[in-house]
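Re-run with default settings, no changes from the original entry. Doing this only to confirm the output is reproducible before filing.
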Amino acid sequence: MIKREWIHAWLLLAPALLLLFAFTHLPAVQTVFDSFWSTPRGRRPAVFVGLDNYQRMLADPIFIKAMVNNAIYALITIPASIALALSMALFVSGKIRGRGTLRMAYFTPTVLPLIAVANIWLFFYLPGFGLFDQIRGLFGFGPINWVGQPTTALYAITAVTIWNQAGFFMIFFLAALQTIPESLREAAALEGASRWTIFWRITWPLIMPTTLFVSVNATINAFRMVDHVFIMTQGGPNNASILLLYYIYDQGFRFWDTAYAATLTVVMVAILCVVGIGQFFLLDRRVHYR
């Protein structure tokens, strides 16, 4: 009987496992394999080049620029998105008028297509006529080409990402806040604890597992962003806003250098694995309230 149930279980899992292997694991193995070969061109087949692609990558100034930009992008978007999402969740978790409408408004940017979001923000950033320059004009400031100059292009994309993903993370924080017994807050309030003390000593420790989950997702999002860059700046000007995934796209689909794109992909996945595993193993023991 147990063997029959075991066979039944594997038969139910087989379609999902087949799709997972065909579209995730097999391409991942193929990408690692391709990173050690040259790109085939026309009748010239691919040849084994060993670590030449990795040596080329380390000497590539655009790759270094993309990594620096991605580090800046991640250092801003991860904490800012988490802080904004938590602030929104705390606000809409209370008993306020129009709470459902506010929750829907906060979550709306998440359900919008990324291409549509990028185009909307392009209108906001339009020099002279956009929303931000109109507001600046009220205070006597001149227009700025937000996405067209190296000093602001990367930060313009960063702001769009924070606005877009904070509502998604808010849902997780909101669910975590609703699992906290109200009796804990009431007991602390009776003891004279302030709102800040209640948050710092009760709420924050109890939602730390959710915070860890959200931080891992925010880290992954920081390295897989390509839509906003493609629509708003295409990595420019002068590679000022180029990110690693967009550089991979550029090499693989614009210049058709698939071997080098595979090498960059291996490095990106390795970075995500190290950061993700590090977050779980280093922080997991500290996120549970005891």
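Residues 113 and 227 are 10 Å apart (CA to CA). The first helix runs from residue 2 to 34.
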